[in-house]
Amino acid sequence: QxxxxxxxxxxxxxxxxMPRTPTANGIIERDETPMEKEIALLHRADFEFSHIFYFxxxxxxxxxxxxxxxxFSSEELLSWNLLTRTNVxxxxxxxxxxxxxxxxxxxxxCFLLPLRFSLAAIGxxxxxxxxxxxxxLPNGSxxxxxxxxxxxxxxxxxxxxxxxxxxxxNKENRPQKGGICVANHTSPIDAIILTNDGCYAMVxxxxxxxxxxxxxxxxxxxxxxWFERSxxxxxxxxxxxxxxxxxxxxxxxxxxxxxxxxxxxxxxMMFKKGSFEIGGTIYPVAIKYDPQFGDAFWxxxxxxxxxxxxxxxxxxxxxxxxxxxxxxxxxxxEDAVQFANRVKSAIARQGGLTELPWDGGLKRAKxxxxxxxxxxxxxxxxxxxxxxxx
Length: 390
Known about the structure:
- The protein is of the alpha/beta class.
- The chain has 12 helices and 9 strands.
- The chain has helices spanning 2-9, 35-42, 52-64, 95-134, 141-161, 190-195, 209-221, 229-232, 235-247, 305-313, 336-351, 369-385, and strands at 164-169, 180-183, 201-205, 225-227, 254-256, 267-268, 282-289, 318-324, 354-355.
- 43% of the residues lie in helices and 10% in strands.
């Protein structure tokens, strides 16, 4: 609290090079008025050359801070949590605050990190050994029971390794067997957060290294659905295997993250429609992390998985809320895209997240030409509608 107050007051010498505006980034004040309304206002009178400055301003706003790229970097905090520079206004303030930060570094790296690393090693080893042993048993209720015990126990050890504090809400809506659990995606640890409270069948691509060892061991005891890289490109094959899994009501619910990439805990981006073409009951889950104790977001274009895990395990703690939403089924007059949007809206409302229509694939890919053409057509229609072309 003391550090936050100091940050809010700022340094003793005012920072005159940064203009004061009501916006969070201190650079530009965005105009949230829709383009359609602005164009209608512009063209109430005859065209003037100055009208083009409206589009220039909109272009500069998009360059400075667009709706997409800012979702792929760590969210800005209102105060400093003594971990990293998570506040653009933070700078050296006093020797006392520096001493507090150094003490925190010693505690996190010399005491918490070794303990957490030991717990993580125990959890991963137990997962590999336990699932391998259970996998040798014949299929039946005993094997399923022991598999769930192993998965739950090891997941809870791994959550302890992150000093995880998780609050689960509306447990009566927890996913049931034969269903599909869909959740917003912030971090690779999302799966551990959910399996700490129940067992799921995972869906994903086959990996090598340590992750590959874990995948091969767990699939022996639990009906996870792992795909080879070539199979992942065949959407029909993926859909077929998932339908076969959902059709068996004795199998665990499938856990899917429809965004396909990690978003920074502030928003929910476009859900891929494939998960909603399978059929069956959808169990939405909203996950919201508290960034005051640690940044759970994985910026994969900036940090590899080892660097990310080191940052997570040297945080103060991982604190989050998980809401189980009522099950949802596809309506007769809905297509897969409309159903996906309805589920996404429910998750965004419950988690207090911003709902965005953009594809998370823009994290690494360029905007498709077809999408640009669609926006150009919309722009042309607005101009024609307001009498600018004739």
